[in-house]
Structures are given as structure tokens and as C-alpha cells.
Amino acid sequence: MPTGRLKSANKQFKTLGMPKLKSQVLEIVPGDFVSIRGDKERKLHEVFLVNKITNRVVLKRELKTSARQDKRPSGKSVPYSQCQLYVGEYEYPPEEGETETKFQKVFATRLNKSAPKLNYVNGRWEWTRFAVNTVPRLPDYSPETYEPVAIPWPTEPDVLKPDPGIYDTTADAVNEVTYSLPSSLLSARLLPGSRPSRMHVHKELANPHARAKKMARYTAFVTRRKALLEEMIQKEYANLNGRSKPAARADAIFRWHQHVAEERQAQRKQRWRKRGGEARLERRRERKTRKAARTNEKLRSLVLDEAQNQVIPGSGLGKRA
Fold this sequence. Notes:
By secondary structure, the protein is an alpha+beta fold.
């Protein structure tokens, strides 16, 4: 988190009554073992969750044997400043009046970290954390020769992959090669052990409506229009034919506006065709033609029943005396 964002976040948290973000990077992560300050027994607790906004650490709470199995494990929340990171268990020499050595748990009271390095394989920043000061002091502690103790990060548990069900895709179906090279690439040389695959897939899968791509297309469009205007102005300057330069420039701008309008109209017509407007218009014309043909056929095949007050056209029976 940058320093500017840290200051603005602290101001917002102060308004909401939350503690300030004193550290940009928290050195206690889920999976670590810590001890709470003031605990005389120095009991170890496993970290379940770290809330960077409220600066609180959620510790795992052991469930009783009589508890329900489906009950979600609840944790104890303590402030981050009250947690001391567990360094390890060291052997200490016997004290005065004792003959046996004893093992004590050592906790870090002050932490430091190395410069972060980018791991290109995993795509993340990594660093090492050190215990600058411990309680109790290490057995071989000396102010002149003391070096910070490196604290390893907790190991991540292995992700269990369940067996595929009826709705999952099997590995055989994923590894099956269903693509064949087109005729234009059949003569291309493939690397040994490589399989045919589609080329330039990233262009097809990339989002064409991304903000950066739309901005790039708009920039190229504006640049092309400006270049066209400058080209038309230079062409008019080359053939003045008795005109002044301002008049030639005005003629070039007028022709440029006409060209842009025609290009825009052609582009709209092309988009109209692409989205099916021309085919839709052709279908509408065919429907009208078929409807007119059906109407004419009905009129030609119309037969009237003989009845009173009917006059055959051209027979002269309907004329009055």
C-alpha cells in the first residue's frame, strides 16, 4: 500500500473510530504460532486470520470433544500489537543449583524484514522476516556478534484434488488434441514433441472492449484523420491555380469534411450489413412479393355465385333505359 493511500486510509479510519494502519506489511500471517503478551504460561496459539483493516488477529480455538462436528470453528480476536511471534524452542544451560538443561520457547519482540524480491515463477513479491530481539534472550546471545534470527514462513497445506464427478471434465478429455493445422501451416516445422495448436489465441480471448484498447483505437482514428487533413492541405498548396493559401486551405478543409462524412456513411452502412440489416431487408422484400402474388392469385381465382343485382362488366345489362 503506497504512503499516500496509507495516510488517506488512516484519516478515514480515524473518522470511523478504527485504529490506524501503523504497518504497511504485517509479518504475522495465517499458520503462524504466536503468544499473547502478559500470558505467564506462554501458551501457543495458531493464527487463523489477520484483519489488516482493524489490526486484529483471529486465533484458532480448540473445539471440545462434545462439540458438534458440523459446527464451524470460532476464533479468539486479539489486537495485532499483543501478539509475539514464535521463533522456536532452544536448549538453555542449567541455572545455578541445577544440573540439567532445559528447553524454553523463544518469542520475537521486534521484527524486521529483508528487501522484497520478485518471484517471476509465482508472480509475487517475497522477502524474509527476522527476529531482531527475542524474549528470553537466545543462549548464545552477545551484543557484538548477535545476528537476527530468520523465521521461516508457514508451509501451505497441499490442495487435495477430489476425484472428478459426472459433471467434471476428465484429464483425458482435456489433453485430447481436437485441432488440426490449416492447409497453409501444414508445411511449417513444429518443434519436437509439440502438438498442433491455434495461433494468436490471446487476440481472440482478449476483451476487445477494454478501456486501454478503446483508447488505442480512438487515438489511432484521430491520428489518421489529422494526417488525412494535412495531406489534403498540402495537396491543395501544391496546385494553387491562382488561389491564395487561405482559400486553398479552406477548400481542403471543405473536401476533408465531405470525405469524412462519406466515410462515416459508408462505415454505418457496413455495420448495418454486418449486423444483418441487408439480409433482413431482403427477407422483407421477399415477403411483400409473396404476399402480392398470393393476393393476385386470389383475385384471379375468385368465383361469384349467381345472385340478384349482379352485372357482368361489358354486358350492358346494368344500363338504365
